[in-house]
């Protein structure tokens, strides 16, 4: 097990290195002089010279990258141009909000997709199968921002059931926190549910056609035990890995959903930073998002290894 984990971590290091090169290179391709942008409206020669020296802008690009990479490895992703706050502290402030939204969205997706996919696989080619597949296709096709606006118009403006936007932390008011999270989590969860439905339905159909399921039926095992104990447990192996990867993507920031509902998470942070030309924050958030995606892939591989005995057996022999 430890050997498997170390191998996955070892293969992730070159990926992170290439991503850091890509992110740093894109920043250098942005038009304009960073020193002039950082100097603001004053732009005195002394201020520009100080900024060039502080950010090593007079040195070759490779040296600038090595300075930035060295600081990033120590947890220093730079300082925000707009707020003069550490990018790392900004990330740590916004991350709990995004984590909460991601957890609620994933719960919505699992609660919706798994029961639908099991019934659709068991009742293959039935009316339920076709209708649930149609609903899943609609959930995957409808843009999150459009669904978010429609939810606001219907649930908040017309019915007045939930707040249209904003965020209240769970420590301030748990009830208001849940109220502000329901709609954005549902909007995010519909797209996730559609993806999980397709994977879990396909996996369930594949398992139901396996020899051990036919053997269980021949032995007179009840349908409930076959579907829930034998079929579903084996079908969930690829679904768990897919859900883990999707959760990692959510941790990178649900940009459009957070912007529509004014949720102060990583997605809104990067949008605001792009409009404010706050390049260190953009750089830090993108790097953190890439790291979260790689970590989620590693966790998905580990989950697959733990759940699938074939991989463990292959490693032993």
TrEMBL record:
GO terms for cellular component: plasma membrane. Residues 95-304 form the ABC transmembrane type-1 domain. The chain crosses the membrane at residues 12-30, 101-122, 134-157, 177-197, 235-256, 285-307. One of its GO terms (molecular function) is dipeptide transmembrane transporter activity. The keyword Membrane applies. This is Peptide/nickel transport system permease protein. Belongs to the binding-protein-dependent transport system permease family. OppBC subfamily. SUPFAM superfamilies: MetI-like. The keyword Transmembrane helix applies. Keywords: Cell membrane, Membrane, Transmembrane, Transmembrane helix, Transport. It holds the Pfam family BPD_transp_1. InterPro entries: BPD_transp_1_N (IPR045621), MetI-like (IPR000515), MetI-like_sf (IPR035906). It is a multi-pass membrane protein. It is found in: Cell membrane.
């Amino acid at each position: 097990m430890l050997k498997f984990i170390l191998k996955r971590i070892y293969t992730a290091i070159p990926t992170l290195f290439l991503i850091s090169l890509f992110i740093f290179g894109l920043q250098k391709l942005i038009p304009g002089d960073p020193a002039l942008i950082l100097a603001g409206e004053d732009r005195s020669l002394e201020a520009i010279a100080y900024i060039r020296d502080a950010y090593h802008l007079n040195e070759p690009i490779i040296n600038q990258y090595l300075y930035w990479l060295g600081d990033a490895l120590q947890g220093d992703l730079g300082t925000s141009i707009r707020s003069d706050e550490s990018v790392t502290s900004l990330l740590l402030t916004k991350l709990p909000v995004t984590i909460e939204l991601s957890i609620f969205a994933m719960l919505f997706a699992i609660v919706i997709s798994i029961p639908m996919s099991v019934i659709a696989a068991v009742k293959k080619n039935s009316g339920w199968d076709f209708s649930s597949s149609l609903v899943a296709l609609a959930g995957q096709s409808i843009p999150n921002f459009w669904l978010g606006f429609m939810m606001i118009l219907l649930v908040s403006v017309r019915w007045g059931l939930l707040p249209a936007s904003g965020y209240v932390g769970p420590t301030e008011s748990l009830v208001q926190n849940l109220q502000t999270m329901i709609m954005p989590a549902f909007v995010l969860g519909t797209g996730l549910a559609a993806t999980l439905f397709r994977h879990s339905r396909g996996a369930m159909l594949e398992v139901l056609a396996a020899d051990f399921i036919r053997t269980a039926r021949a032995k007179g095992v009840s349908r409930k035990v076959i579907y829930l104990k034998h079929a579903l447990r084996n079908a969930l192996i690829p679904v768990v890995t897919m859900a883990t990867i999707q959760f990692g993507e959510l941790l990178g920031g649900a940009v459009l959903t957070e912007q529509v509902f004014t949720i102060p998470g990583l997605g809104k942070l990067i949008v605001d930073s792009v409009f404010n030309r706050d390049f260190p924050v953009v750089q830090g958030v993108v790097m953190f998002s890439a790291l979260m995606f790689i970590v989620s892939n590693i966790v998905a591989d580990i989950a697959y290894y733990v759940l699938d005995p074939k991989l463990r057996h292959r490693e032993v022999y």
